[in-house]
Amino acid sequence: MVERAETRSSVLPLLVTLSLLQLPDYTAAATQDWQDYKHGHQDAAELHDKKPFCSWKCLLFTLQWPGAFCQSLDEETLCRIPPSINSWTIHGLWPVRAFRCCKCWPMFQSDVQELEAELTEHWPSLLQTQPSFHFWREEWEKHGVCAACVEGMNSPLRYFQICLKLRGHFDIYKLLEGAGITPTCDHPYKVAEVRQVLAPHLGDKHEIQCVTDDKDRELWFQVKIPLSHNLTVGCDHHGHGHADWDVASGRGAGRNVSDRHPCPPQGSFYYVPIDPQRPRQPCG
Ligand SMILES: *[C@@H]1O[C@H](CO)[C@@H](O)[C@H](O)[C@H]1NC(C)=O
Ligand SMILES: *[C@@H]1O[C@H](CO)[C@@H](O)[C@H](O)[C@H]1NC(C)=O
């Protein structure tokens, strides 16, 4: 309970900063316009789906650790870490179980031109064959379009702005550094110890994800932060366990996801340094 109170107070500054996200307050007429617009683009199966408009309740904000991201890919996928990258980067902001997403809202480079420098720094593609813009566009088309039923995220520009603000707010590197937890090959950290540092900021439902490397070490490569509709930390609506959360996570081509898993709660993992020279083997 005490933890929840702390969580809430840590998030208020974010809400003030964002200040533009509200629960949808659509008039019936506006909703109808939107439905008409969408129906023009829907196939028959979707039309029979009676799920209400903007039905999702929770978002997952997912950050990846470049130090171990390359090990989460299969061997054939070429991975690179741009030399300027030295902290957690954005993977995506995903509405959970969003039913009404259309493929009707294309995104162009000019949509996010003013954010390009920031996005390049905080949301780079780490796949050698995928330009960063293609990564952003894929995330927009898979997830952003679904998020866009909420005022404040209803354009590529606004959606990516929100993501960048969230990235600034959740400075995992700094939070851990403050607790003496820094990337190293020398020793692993206990999962419980890290969660304890993060929980007051990310909520107690945040998920820490690992991959197992070829020496059978657990490597921390990703964290998922549940958020409510209004971007406060935590979300009580998901209910059905982790399988559903994974549905939101979207997959890019060529990624082997079978080995990605929650880090064993009673175990420990390596928080390995970022090494652009040896992205797959930062610890040799
Ligand atoms: C945000 O949404 C949650 C869940 O719907 C609600 O409990 C909370 O009061 C809201 N917070 C603000 C500041 O609007
Ligand atoms: C994906 O990873 C699993 C587990 O490490 C492995 O057994 C499987 O062969 C891999 N698949 C591909 C396509 O690389």
Automatic annotation (TrEMBL):
Location of the protein in the cell: Lysosome lumen
Signal peptide: 1-29
InterPro entries: RNase_T2-like, RNase_T2-like_sf, RNase_T2_His_AS_1
A Pfam family: Ribonuclease_T2
Keywords assigned by UniProt, alphabetized: Signal
One Gene Ontology molecular-function label: RNA binding
Entry GO CC: extracellular region; lysosomal lumen
Keyword Signal: yes
Coiled coil (UniProt feature): none
Record-linked SUPFAM superfamilies: Ribonuclease Rh-like
Any one Gene Ontology BP term: RNA catabolic process
Protein name, as recorded: Uncharacterized protein
Species, as recorded: Perca flavescens (American yellow perch)
Lineage start: Eukaryota, Metazoa, Chordata, Craniata, Vertebrata
